[in-house]
Amino acid sequence: MHFALPPRKTSRPPPYLPRTSRLPGLRKTRAKLFALAGLVFLTFIYLLTRSDSGWHAVPSPRVPKGDPPVVLVTVLDASRYNGAYLETVKRNRLQYAEKHGYKTLLAKIGDYDLGGSPFSWARVVAMLDALTKFPDARYIWFLDASGFIMNPNIKIEDDIMQPAKLDEMMKRDLPVVPPDSIIKTFSHLKGQDVDLVLTQDKEGLTSSSVILRNGEWARFFLQTWFGPLYRSYAFQKAETHALEHIVQWHPTILSRLAIVDQRVLNSYVKGKQEELYRDGDFVIGFPDCADSGPEACESQSRPFVQAWQNAFAST
Known about the structure:
Elements: H1 22-49, E1 70-76, H2 83-100, E2 103-108, H3 122-133, E3 139-143, E4 147-149, H4 156-160, H5 163-169, E5 196-201, E6 204-213, H6 216-225, H7 228-232, H8 238-249, H9 251-254, E7 257-260, H10 262-265, E8 267-268, E9 283-285, H11 296-313
Parallel strand pairs: 1-2, 1-3, 5-7, 8-9
Antiparallel strand pairs: 3-6, 4-9, 5-6
Helix pairs in contact: 2-11, 3-6
């Protein structure tokens, strides 16, 4: 019996003949891809615009409108200053703010829960409070109760925070904590990039007069400063030494900091020559007067009360 053998595969395949149906198939495939891409795009637009879809675009940072231009913040501590002195401080702040269309936040120590931290930390919470109550303010200026505004003609937004002014005034490549801190202010920083303005005295950074540009960075900075770790640490000068720490070890904060001459923002009634108040200076401070008792600040400031009142009356 004989069986038919299957045909052998030739080693010479037949010549390639193009399939006439390939081009229409390719066109169909491309058409399907375009249709799918269009469907994905329309679905994305639909989800983006539907109010109830649960999809939310990432919001742009909120830009304050500058209304008011400045909020002047002072914390009043009746345990450290007598009543007559605090009333004078209030009048000083209110008259200055009224002249320039600013707002004030005159807080009391008892207004805030500091979680057992020293009362001096209230200045940080008060600035956070100002950001919440005045979301469209352009600047927050904290001025400690141990000082008076002496020159009512100086405006924060024009005479200090205006970028060209800051370019002239800021101290570049300066040790943050004098005299020989290895951490220095940025040498290439421009006025338009500054969000925090401070001064130094002979001991280091001061937190008794601070200007902060409102924005997301300002809230980040204040929340960092008020962090529980820093409040729990036994810094000798509480919030002031905490401020020095975060400025030196957080480049994100140092990169927005300008240090200006003390007499620009925070002259002293006594101290080194470069610290001393002169006629025409913006502010006069009575550092540590409250440490000598509730009556001491009133006593030290008395010679200057009539001077600032006369200056305000003449403008």
